[in-house]
Amino acid sequence: MGNKNAPLAEKIDDVVSMPLAEEQAHITKQRKVDSRISLTRSTHHVEKLLETELARENVEIEHVAKNYQVADDYSAEIRQEGDVLIIPVIEEQVEIITKKVLKEEIHIRKHVNKEEFQQKVTLRNQEVKITKQKP
Q: Which of 39, 59, 80, 118 lies 20 to 30 Å (CA to CA) from residue 31?
């Protein structure tokens, strides 16, 4: 059985440990700018002269008296003679008999006046300039 002269060995049930050093690891993220983009928008104004020819039509109306009798089968049709549009106006007059009398004709002339027209207008356009810069 053992040595009688040896000190009594005590049984230690509770073990206490004390940490001396411990390593830990942490992960962190950082944003790194490796380039920058610069946008520049510019608006340009350009004056432009617009030119065109404008036409204006004037109408001249003239009543031409006729006052003569026409046949019953007279066709009072509108007609064109040169630049004049002629519209016959018929009136029935009652006597003992009915007869057609060409009362008048309406002559319509068309005149065209032309004039030059100019107006300055400002036109705009935009452009974008993209520049890539290193930090």
A: 39
